[in-house]
Amino acid sequence: METNAILEGMLRRKSIREFTAEDPTQETVDAIVRAGQQAPFAAQLGSVLLKRNREANPFHAPLLFTLCVDLHRMERIMEARGWERAMCDLSALLLGIQDAAYMAQNMVQAAESVGLGSCFLGATPYYADRIVEAYGLPPRVFPLVQLAMGYPAEDPPARPRYPIDFALFEDRYPAFDRASIEGAMDVMDAGYLAQDYYRSRNAMIRLEEGREEEFTYDSYSWTEHISRKLGQWGKDPNELLRALRACGFDLGAEAKANQPE
Amino acid sequence: METNAILEGMLRRKSIREFTAEDPTQETVDAIVRAGQQAPFAAQLGSVLLKRNREANPFHAPLLFTLCVDLHRMERIMEARGWERAMCDLSALLLGIQDAAYMAQNMVQAAESVGLGSCFLGATPYYADRIVEAYGLPPRVFPLVQLAMGYPAEDPPARPRYPIDFALFEDRYPAFDRASIEGAMDVMDAGYLAQDYYRSRNAMIRLEEGREEEFTYDSYSWTEHISRKLGQWGKDPNELLRALRACGFDLGAEAKANQPE
Hints:
The structure is a homodimer.
Chain A: H1 5-12, H2 26-37, E1 46-51, E2 63-70, H3 71-80, H4 89-113, E3 117-121, H5 128-135, E4 141-150, E5 168-170, H6 178-194, H7 197-201, H8 222-232, H9 237-246, H10 251-257
Antiparallel strand pairs in A: 1-2, 2-4, 3-4
């Protein structure tokens, strides 16, 4: 496979959750955010919040970034231009989430290039209200994801991924047969077991009442873990609808008004 | 500002819409997609479709990738594990859009590192039905964004971005005063005008009936362009709700059922 230092760096990349005492300089922070800003897509609907409070930051990271979908700033510009937003919230969020996400991923890669490690915090939208409060966010700013960052004090291996023929489909989406499903599951499960990933972090997800535990850390791995997440978590859309409403995006009302009877 | 070859590459990056006749090899395609797969986030809910038909691809690009949110594949794995999905569609989409977006941005950067240019096609979700048809997508696969890619036959400058103090906010989200709004607008507008961006592409967005055109390509620039998009486009949430429904995600019904009276 074709390779170079950048590709090798991407393939080596893994989440870092332990950080040294060294504080990244303002120059480094600026370089990372500038690289983030240059990510493609069009509308610059992503904003970045920063907190340097190690005591309060997840994993005591020296840097905690919060990537937000920011319609507030855009609407101030539109106002200065004599325009009112007409785009619905669903469309604006779909654009803005992408703006913020492309920016975030550029920041991850930029950080790696200057020796910093990072970890995404995917549950961010579920505690959006606390972020609104902490940073004094105006309405129309939605915290999408947080990124803890600092100099790595651990060096874990890169984590397994699906075989490429389970992720890249040319011309037609395949009808997965049992062998290809099980083959991909084996790659993931054997890969995480070989790294002792869940045991070392004591990360087994508890079963809801009524289900009996049949796994130990000798057998518990990625496909069971991810199945428990999607099989037990995030059932109630109200959690996110409420979080969005608290940030001034009324997706629920919009969908309701436009739902066929 | 701190710098290195990777950061410099990110700051130089711009969308490419003209491609040479050279076809990227399978090895190159695989290297790009593998780098995409290694992007962080947890659930591997992103899938990549590929079409190499230059005649049909946008900008006659040799490669057209479609990044999808793929719950179908995940639900097949859960089924093999004896699980049913319980997570609501809104939560699953929020996770899956991020998985697909982080993957896409890694692919953009991986491509740059081997000399390929690319351009995102942000309107993808609005013609999801055509992609479902073209690739035979099963339900629960949602085409998020397309990425046209190939060897560049043009070398435009990088495009302007907001000043960093208009994008990075430490501790508190600022109360923008008029001067900071107008300063950022000037940076964007003067920057695009200096590149003759809209004139060279004849890209002025037409005004809806009732609004009188007061701009020429001597004055029309980024803030007016983006205001016209958000002020005129994507008004009807039904467009996206329908597209999602066609892909087996019933966000509308879910929101309606959970909307406070």
